[in-house]
Amino acid sequence: MRLKTSLIIPAYNEEEGVPLVIDEYLDKVDEIIIVDDGSTDRTFEVAKKYDIQLYKHETNKGKVAALQTGVEHATGDIIIFTDADYTYPAKYIPDFVKEIEGGADLVLGARFENIKNMPFLNKVGNHIFSFLATYISCKEITDSQTGYRAFKRDMFDKLNVNAKGLEFETKMTVRAAKHGYKIVEIPIEYRERVGKSKLRPIRDGIKMLFALVSIAYSETSLLAKMIMIPSLFFILIGLITGSISIYEKIVPGVLSHEYYPILTTCLILVAIQLISIGLIIDYLTKKLDRIEERLVK
Predict the structure, then answer these.
(1) How far apart are the C-alpha atoms of 270 and 277, rounded to whole Å?
(2) Helix, strand, or coil (residue 17)
(3) Domain limits of the chain?
(4) From CA 208, how far away is CA 121, in angstroms rounded?
(5) Among candidate residues 66, 13, 10, the one with its CA nearest the CA of residue 195
(6) SS3 helix, strand, coil % of the chain, rounded to 5?
């Protein structure tokens, strides 16, 4: 039986991009839901001209709130997220649906083609946070921040991602990986955005970093945490000995504790090894739980 698709588009001051996105996606999905998140321009009026579901927040509540509103009103079996800035082409929808129907839990549109359309700082941040997401989840993820993704309706509630802004995508991706869900990435073209970007690289980058740390701690099993806890002690001691070495080299100009640099290196390396082992054990444990859950079904 063919699964019904619901496309959800959060929009905040996107009067230029919204009509382009709607026109392109209309014949690719079963229903389009646009949530105007308190726009101060003509986004709502422009979207109102189309035969779609349209909802409006009276005040700007953030992207995640807009997505939640959209999911609440969606009737499809497969939920698809995209942005209102016309950066994500609709032609990949059939590939997304095919992967979901083939057993994937989360499909990500990985921005590999025409990556030059992404601002430099965004590109650097994307690589850094995708690397960290891969390390934390023990699952190779090349584009954890992409806003173009698809999944089955019930998965959104199961993940229960606690986020407010643009860190949502990263947190959702890592949380899905930590829970053992099957994640598939599809290389997509990334177009130059229409309208003004809402992303603030430094501020949003800090939020993403804290989100990853939060996921790494909260989603890790007790056994893995017990293995990782000593690493915090080693890192602390390493930072102390390293700071002393730097101070002695800069101020007196002579290292009084010659073995401190080596000690610092060894402590940091041991800490990284313990964290890695803990994350691997956690990944294997949850992957086995997920396999057992599938077998029971």
Answers:
(1) 11
(2) helix
(3) 5-218, 222-296
(4) 14
(5) 13
(6) 55, 15, 30
Residues in the chain: 297
Tokens 């035969």 — which residue? 51
> Which has more pLDDT, 31 or 198?
31
What pLDDT is stored for residue 185 in this prediction? 95
Taking alpha carbons only, the member of 174, 185, 170, 183 closest to residue 137 is: 174
Query: What six digits make up the tokens of 93?
Result: 């929808």
Q: pLDDT digit string (tens) for 223-259?
A: 777 777 788 889 899 999 989 888 888 887 777 778 8
State pTM to two decimals: 0.77
Angle at 269 between CA 268 and CA 274, to 5 degrees: 100
Q: Which fold has domain 5-218?
A: Spore Coat Polysaccharide Biosynthesis Protein SpsA; Chain A (3.90.550)
pLDDT tens, 2-34?
789 999 999 999 999 999 999 999 999 999 999
Structure tokens at 197: 């970007």
Token pair of 190, please?
């990334």
Tokens of 131: 């690397």
How many whole angstroms separate alpha carbon 179 and alpha carbon 206? 24
With a cut of 60, say whether residue 297 has pLDDT above it.
no
Cβ atoms 131, 56 nearer than 8 A: no
Q: pLDDT-based confidence at 168, cuts 50/70/90?
A: confident
CA 34 to chain centre: 21
